[in-house]
Structures are given as C-alpha cells and as structure tokens.
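Dear support,

I submitted the protein below through the web form. The confirmation email said the job was done, but the results page showed an empty box. After a refresh the structure appeared. I'm attaching both so you can tell me whether what I see now is the final result or a partial one.
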Amino acid sequence: MNFDMVVIGGGLVGASLVAALQASGLKIALVEPHQTAPLPRDDSWDSRVYAISPGSVAFLENLGIWRHMTSDRLTPVYEMSVWGDDQTAQINFSAYEMGVSELAFIAENRQLQTAVWEALKLPNQNVHLFCPAKCTSISWLESHVEVRLDDGTQLDTRLVVGADGVNSWVRKQAGIEESRRPYHQIGVVANFMAELSHRHIACQWFRRDGVLALLPLPGKRVSMVWSTGEEHAAELRDLPAEALCRLVEDASLHTLGKLELITAPVGFPLNFVHVESLIKPRLVLIGDAAHGIHPLAGQGVNLGLRDTRELVAVLNGRGSTNDCGDYLLLRQYELARKEDIWAMEQVTDGLQKLFNNSNPTLARLRNLGLEITNRLPLIKNQLMRHALN
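What the results page shows now:
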C-alpha cells in the first residue's frame, strides 16, 4: 500500500493534520491504536480539559472541526488572573484590553477528540484510516519508508509524521535524541461545582507547594489543575471529597466560595522534554512528540496545533515538488518552528524553576516582577499576543 504520508498518532494534533490535508491531493494514512470512545449520554465531565487559543480555534473552524463541538460544553475565557506565592502580587489579562472577544475557550479532551474524528469520517479517497492499529516496525530507505502494522500490513510512504505523544515510539525508532528532565511533580486534575460564579475568569496561583489553576467550565463549574510535588499529589488524590474541597477552597483564597467535587481527582507526571531535531530524512515530528512543556501556561496543545499549521503551510506550498518527504522541504518546517518551541520551553521551564525555589530573596523578586509586569501594558500585551496565536 503506497502513500505520500503516514501519520502515526491520531490525537488532536495528528488527526487535525490529516483533516487539514484532505484536499491537498496527497494520499495519506492515519495510524491510531485506540478508537475514540463514544461521548457518554449523561451529565458527566471529562477531567482533562484544554485552553484552546483563538488562533487554534480559527484553525479548527476552517477545518470544519469546531462545528462538531457541543456549544454548551465550551466556555469562553474573558479574563485571567495570576497570583504570586505571597498571595498579594498579581497580574491580570483581559480580552477587552487586548481587543479580542475572548482569551481562550476551555474544552474537554473527549469533546475535541470526537470532533476531529467526526471531520475525518467524511468520504475521501485520499485518506485511509487504520484504527485500531499499531505500528510494529519502521524501516527508512533512501526513496521511501516502510511501516509495518501489527496485522502484517505494510505501508510504503514518502513521509512519516510522528504525532504519537511525549513518549513517542516513532522518535525512538528514528534515533532522535531528547533531553528529558522530570519535574518530580504530578498534575492533579479534578472538576468542581462552585458556590460563586467564575465570571469566565481563569485563575492561577503560584504557591510554595506548586501551581494551582481553576479554569471556568459551563455554569458554575470549574476545572482544577494542581501541579505539585509527588508526595503532595498522592495526598490530594487520597483525600475524601469533602476534605479535598476544603483544601482547594483555602488554596484558592476562597475566590469561588464553597466547592463541591463532581469529578474524582486523577494525576499525570510532569516532565520537561526537549527534542534535539524535529526532522530527519523522510520524518517529521509534531505535537508532544516534538516537545514536552510544563502545563502552567496551558499552551501545550496550542503549541502542537501551531506545529500542524506550519507543516500544512509548508506542504501546501511545496510547488512542483512531488516528494513531500523531501529533506529541504522538511527543513523549512523545522526552521519555522524552532524559535516558537524554544521560547515556550524557556518560559514554562523558567517559571517552574523560579517559583519552585524556597530562597526568600528570590521569592521577593519574583513577586515584585509580577507586580511590575502588571503595570506595564506593552509587556503584558506582548506576552498575551503570543498566547493568542
């Protein structure tokens, strides 16, 4: 079976790449080991949510993906408030001040996955879905790549796209080096019903025990992401529901009044992963396969979608080049993405190190920095402009 491109990994980033190239004339295969589960027919909520930037929303709208999202499950964010660990230093961002309708939309992971796969179900002779299917081997040759699946099927392709997550199997098979450093933190996520309205404001507290964020969901619901040390994370997950609610209320300075747990807490380990190269001959990496950053800025999925947007632009602008795996073509993608990825790695890793430090002098400086930045609209706007892309 011959293809121009085989995309390995059918999450939001990989599947949206296929959706964006459906009309490109390229013959594409998408390989994904897990079928998307049907959305539950109840009022339950996904523990995992994402802040989708306006730039990412526009991209998904153009692909016909966003229209598959259930509107009453989406929450626009109009403001964002961030507190330092002295509980007084603060920086605020406003959609009104930025001249945009919203800073982001909070969306459930399962809603996004369902929406992107709905867009791929439309008949298209150039797109072939292998799901559930798992890759067992990859052989790189000069003219093409041979990808073998667990049922024995062999896919011959000019380009392999690794979109299979931060622990990318494709990246390992390609021998691309990575710099990995564990944060020794767990991102604990849970959903709550709040006594007071969140007023479409996302709140974040840099604390001595980690970074706590409460993101607005429909109604008075909020989604918590508490990035904290492994021992503290274990304590949070083991607490009875009532005790967890009281602890989060205190940690969030009672901003939303009383809380009621509606989704049990779960956790995922946090690591910094820098990938030495985004490409090699006939291979390109996108999404978490290309980078792994701390979630404190809520930009991981948007960074991955910017990878997708750039790769689509490069492939659609390839001109008379028939070979979409041409190394010089892939080099254009890498050069275009490296600065954005490097900047986001430095910002998120730097902030994590800055606030995960008990030095009292550093504590005073970092909180003073928040206050000063809050009073400098040009710097605030520049920070926010990048996050809106």
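Response: this is the final, complete result; the empty box was a page-load delay. The mean pLDDT is 94.
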